[in-house]
Amino acid sequence: MEDKKVVAYRIRQEHQKGVALLITLSVILLLSIALMKNFEKRSVEVAHLGNNLERFQAESLSRSVFRVILTVIKDQGLNTLLGNRSYWQEIDFSLGNGYFQIKEVTPIDHRFNLNKISSRIKDARIAVFKNMVRINLEMAGGYIQPSVNEPLSAIIDFTDENSIGDEVFSYDFEQYYREEPAFSVKNREFDRLSEVKLLPTFRALGFSADYLEENFRVLGDAEYIDVNLVNEKDLRDFLSRYDGVDGYSSLFDRQSDIWELIEKRRLSGNQSSVSGPLKIRAPFPAKRFGQVWNDALVASGITDLTQKEIDLFNYKSETLLIRFQVQVGKATVNIRSTVHIKYRKDSLKIEELGILSFRMI
CB of 350 within 8 A of CB of 336? Predict the structure, then answer.
C-alpha cells in the first residue's frame, strides 16, 4: 500500500514538473516572439534613423559645399571659373563619407524676367514675350496659335500689388476664381519660376520645361547679355527675341557679325599653350567698357545699332544660377541657388555675393 502511495506521489510530482516545464517553455516562447517583434521594430527604427542621419549629413555637407563654391567664385572670378568648366562640371568630388557634383554655374541675366512685364501694350518687352511664345511653338512643331494676351494679363494681375486689375488687356483678376484650379492674385512678385505654372492661361502657352528653364527667370534685375561670358547659342537665342521689335530691328540681322566680334576678341586675349586650368582674361574690360565696346563695333563695321540695342550688352554677369548635388549613403540632396554678384567699382573683381534663393530638394 505504501508503495502505491509513493508511486502515485511521484507521478503527481513528475506531472507537476512537466506542467511547470510546459508553462516555462510557453512563457519563453511568448517572450521570444515579443523580443523578436521588438527587435524587428528596433531594426526598422535604426534603419530609419540611419536614413535620417544620412539625409542630415547630406544637408549639412551641401551647406559646406555651397560655401566653398561661393569662395571659389569670389577668389577666382567668373571668367576663370567658367572658362575651365571641364575641370569641375559634373565630376564627382569625394568629401568625407560622401561626394558632391557641381551641375552648373550659369549667368542668367539674359533670361527674360517675368516679374518685369509692363502693362503698357506698346512696351517692347511684351513684343519680346510674344516672340518667345512663337519661337517655342515653332520648336515644338505646334500649329495652333495660343492666346498671348490672357497669360500676359494673368501675370500682370497675379503680381499686382494694388489688385486693381489690368487696364490694357481684357482679362482682369476678377475672373480667376472661375479657373481650374481657382486662384486669387498674389499681390507680390514671383519667388520661383515654377510659380507661373499656377496660372492656367500660362500653362496653355505650351512652354516645354527645358525652354522655360533656359529662357525665363523671376530673380535679378535688368536683362542683358554678358559679352565676356556668353556662348554662341545663348547669344543667338537672346537676339532672336528682338526679331521685328520696334527700336531693335538691327539686332537679329547682325547676330552673326556680333558673335564673330566677340569670339575674335576672346581668342586673341586668351591664347596659351599651357596645359591645365588657365587664368582667363575678360575680352572686354570693366573700365570704360562703353567706349571699348562701341569702338569694337565700329571697327567690325557694325554701325547700325541704336543706343537701346547697344545697352543690351554688358561686361559683367550679376545673377548666377548654381546647381549641385550631394550624396551620403543612400541620401541624395539637390541644391538650386540664385546668387547676386556685387563688383568693385570699374572692376571685375567680386566684392560680395548675396544669396537670392536657396532650395534643397
Answer: no
8 Å CB contact between 104 and 321: yes
Question: What separation, in Å, do the N-terminal and C-terminal C-alpha atoms of the chain show?
Answer: 88
Kindly report the CA angle at 279 between 278 and 285, in degrees rounded to 5?
140
- Per-residue pLDDT tens for 83-114? 899 999 999 998 878 899 999 999 999 999 99
Q: Are 327 and 99 in contact (CB under 8 A)?
A: yes
Q: Are strands 350-360 and 331-343 parallel, antiparallel or unpaired?
A: antiparallel
CATH classification at residue 175: 1.10.40
> Got the DSSP string for 125-161?
HHHHHHHHHHHHHHHHT--S---SHHHHHHHHHHT-T
Report yes or no on 351 lying in a domain. no
